């Protein structure tokens, strides 16, 4: 029950950030959105800073759950067709992942921007990025990269940019997404 309530609080906090930005994240806003009794959020997270850092850890956890199957499928695609990967299928995979995670992506970008001014948030969000770069490095290795660590940074930057476009400018065309994936993985 305690773990369930903690996760409920953090998932609601992600929704509050996505809806109202980081400035809208308060203990009261989260407990009202989660329909919890007064003091519930404070019981788990004594300060707003602790709540914010716990939200980042929850984002990492959710990303890990959602990204690993997508990366595993991309690895299978690359292994099956190493000379001719199915970039359209990989792009469709990313589109599905992002569509399911739109609110999470909004919260993540809010936190990334806050990290530009707050070293504690920046360090926490760096761990979030490291998780994805580690997975991207596996893709780069499978794609035959001569420098997987560097190419993983390029893949991560490209995917971050495409995600940002997806969240802020609306849906990307299938062709645009597939072309971006093709360029990143062809290198």
Helix content: over 70%
Question: What is the CATH topology?
Answer: Tetracycline Repressor, domain 2
Q: Please compute the radius of gyration using only Cα atoms.
A: 18 Å
Query: Beta-sheet strand percentage?
Result: under 5%
Based on CA inertia axes, which overall geometry fits? elongated
Summarize the main sheet.
none
Name of the CATH architecture? Orthogonal Bundle
Give the number of helices: 9
CATH class: Mainly Alpha
What's the order of the H and E elements? HHHHHHHHH
Structural class: mainly alpha
Number of strands: 0
Tally of individual domains:
1
C-alpha termini separation: 48 Å
Helices and strands, with pairings:
Elements: H1 2-20, H2 27-33, H3 40-44, H4 48-80, H5 87-100, H6 102-115, H7 119-142, H8 148-169, H9 174-186
